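Summary of Year 1 activities. Much of the first year was spent building the evaluation harness for sequence design. The harness presents a backbone, in tokenized form, and records the residue chosen at every position. We chose the following record to illustrate the format because it has been used consistently in internal testing since the harness was completed.
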């Protein structure tokens, strides 16, 4: 794809009406020369989100998010920088240069795919609302208690059965709109008969749930068969659900049903309710539980857990009260813990789902959800009974989950609870955790995967209200005091910007001289990373070809697994069309921003301390310094625009 010229990016920034843009997502009110509203990126009751039309920027003084119109679209819609620029260019009438034929063809195909999905959604929606062919769909929606407002919010539709509208009603609609039938086939909307070569609809006799991306685009569909079309034919009942295949718009394991509709509530409550079914999500939103989302016909994936972590701090699992629901919870728990989420769970009665439990009882359960891992421990202990072998097997399943907890304070509490429930000495639990942690760390280092100490995404911000860690000594087999934090997570996370800068130097060593001139060594301060950066730059100067073992040998042994995963993942070996020098500057800016944020926090602590002691003048000086740092941090948060050549 042809890069968008800097002057065109600037033209987009100049022409974008940031008040109009943000006003489509946030209710803004004028406050002097600016506008204020509730931040769409975090929950708040008092507006701290400011839009400055003169500077064409926004800033939230609650969560720190800020930038220009492009940054807003990237954050709110989850788009890449080029996608955000192109969206704004289309909205505000900026003509961008022509792309290469290949890039233009790919983008045109993607645009047509969006158009096909939107056409299908609109067509099925109209049939459900008022067409005679949609009577079965309307009857089913009524029996499930879904009101018209909720059905409209989720854009529910009905795909008629052949007896109601023929085999090719949607295919004919697509053809009449002169859209690509082969592309519609790849999207799973229609199929082609091998015998007649005619087109037929794949969604038949089903209530259709559009899958909507965070930015509002329909990208796929999930559809439930409805009576009377759920009856068996030739002894084979139709599948309960039919889902779109993966496509150029849709990857099943990376999206969640209901996320688009839940975004405002997720921002307000910082909580998600994770359920199994689409109808559970719809009904819960109708009841006012608008944080509900669901995986799309599969067990929760790591990507879906990370997606949730972008929008909330706590996840409450409310899966069905059957064996499948318990299995789904067991699968989801470690993924949610690894995504640094506070995971809670409500236990539904055997054989019931959220819809059958009902609004009042479910709301009561959700008002006091318990820690999911503790509930798992209790269930496993009850199931094991008093048999020694059964208890040992239960511990073998439970304790690896304790290691997934992101904070030492949590792991300490879980270890205490495990020892209490299974009536074992605390030292036995600690010894097992140590062995598991060492085994996992070694296995990951051998396989090149992320280690237990650094597998979490570095950009995940600390969550509000969480306590600071306090490691305490526990027994060890050698008699020397060892902390549980040393056994499970020996080192603090590596600074994200410094890690990525070190990785760039390792992957692109010809940048070493440029990096040295731009002061890279001044910014890589972490003692686990600095030796590698110095060695790469010195080696490039001498013409040495340093290997990964050479560089890892410079790091303390305890930190080697962590540094291995953070620096030698090879993400920058193939940059494609990205300019390495531009990337270098971006990472240097990231390192500077990280350092200034630390300095700003220290300055703010000084202000509080000095004010409490009556040193008002000194406090004012530190406050002024903090404001200077804040201005520079804001500058560094803006996307870097390389100078035109």
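For this record, the design step produced the sequence shown next.
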């Amino acid at each position: 794809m042809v890069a968008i010229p800097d002057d065109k990016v600037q033209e987009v920034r100049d022409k974008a009406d940031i008040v109009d843009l943000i006003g489509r997502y946030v209710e803004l009110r004028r406050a002097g020369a600016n506008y204020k509203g509730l931040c769409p990126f975090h929950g708040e009751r008092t507006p701290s989100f400011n839009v400055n039309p003169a500077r064409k920027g926004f800033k939230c003084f609650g969560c720190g998010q800020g930038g220009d119109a492009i940054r807003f679209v990237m954050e709110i819609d989850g788009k890449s920088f080029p996608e955000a620029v192109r969206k704004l260019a289309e909205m505000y009438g900026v003509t961008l240069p022509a792309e290469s034929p290949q890039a233009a063809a790919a983008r045109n195909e993607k645009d047509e795919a969006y158009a096909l999905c939107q056409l299908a959604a609109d067509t099925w929606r109209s049939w459900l609302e008022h067409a005679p062919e949609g009577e079965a769909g309307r009857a089913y929606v009524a029996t499930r208690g879904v009101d018209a407002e909720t059905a409209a919010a989720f854009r529910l539709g009905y795909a008629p059965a052949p007896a109601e509208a023929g085999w090719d009603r949607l295919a004919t609609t697509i053809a009449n709109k002169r859209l690509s039938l082969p592309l519609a086939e790849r999207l799973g909307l229609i199929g082609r008969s091998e015998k007649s070569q005619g087109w037929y609809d794949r969604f038949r006799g089903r209530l259709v749930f559009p899958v909507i991306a965070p930015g509002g685009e329909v990208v796929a569909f999930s559809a439930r068969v409805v009576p009377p079309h759920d009856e068996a034919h030739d002894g084979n009942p139709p599948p309960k659900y039919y889902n779109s295949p993966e496509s150029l718009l849709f990857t099943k394991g990376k999206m969640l049903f209901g996320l688009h509709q839940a975004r405002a509530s997720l921002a307000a409550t910082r909580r998600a309710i994770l359920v199994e079914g689409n109808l559970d999500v719809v009904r819960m939103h109708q009841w006012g539980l608008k944080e509900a989302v669901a995986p799309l016909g599969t067990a929760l994936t790591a990507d879906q857990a990370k997606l949730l972590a972008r929008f909330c701090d706590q996840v409450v699992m409310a899966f069905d009260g059957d064996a499948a629901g318990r299995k789904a919870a067991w699968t989801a728990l470690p993924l949610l813990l690894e995504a640094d989420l506070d995971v809670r769970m409500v236990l539904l009665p055997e054989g019931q789902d959220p819809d059958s439990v009902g609004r009042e009882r479910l709301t009561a359960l959700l008002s006091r959800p318990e820690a999911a891992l503790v509930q798992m421990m209790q269930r496993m202990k009850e199931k094991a009974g008093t048999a020694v072998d059964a208890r040992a097997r239960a511990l073998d399943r439970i304790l690896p989950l304790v290691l997934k907890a992101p904070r030492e304070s949590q792991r300490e509490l879980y270890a205490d609870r495990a020892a209490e429930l299974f009536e074992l000495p605390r030292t036995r639990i600690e010894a097992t955790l140590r062995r598991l942690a060492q085994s996992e760390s070694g296995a990951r280092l051998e396989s090149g995967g992320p280690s237990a100490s650094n597998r979490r995404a570095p950009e995940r911000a600390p969550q509000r209200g969480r306590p600071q860690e306090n490691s305490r000594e526990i027994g060890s087999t050698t008699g020397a005091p060892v902390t549980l934090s040393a056994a499970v997570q020996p080192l603090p996370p590596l600074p994200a910007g410094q890690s990525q800068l070190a990785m760039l130097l390792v992957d692109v060593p010809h940048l070493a001289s440029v990096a040295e001139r731009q002061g890279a060594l001044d910014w890589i301060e972490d003692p686990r990373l600095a030796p590698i950066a110095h060695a790469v730059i010195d080696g490039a100067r001498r013409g040495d070809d340093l290997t990964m073992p050479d560089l890892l040998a410079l790091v303390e042994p305890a930190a080697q697994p962590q540094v291995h995963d953070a620096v030698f993942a090879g993400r920058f070996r193939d940059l494609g069309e990205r300019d390495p020098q531009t990337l270098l500057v971006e990472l240097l800016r990231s390192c500077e921003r990280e350092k200034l944020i630390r300095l700003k926090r220290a300055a703010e602590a000084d202000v509080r301390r000095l004010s409490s002691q009556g040193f008002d003048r000194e406090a004012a000086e530190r406050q002024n310094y903090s404001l200077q740092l804040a201005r520079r941090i804001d500058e560094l948060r803006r996307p870097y625009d390389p100078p035109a050549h």
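The mean pLDDT is 83. Quantitative recovery figures across the full test set are reported in Table 2.
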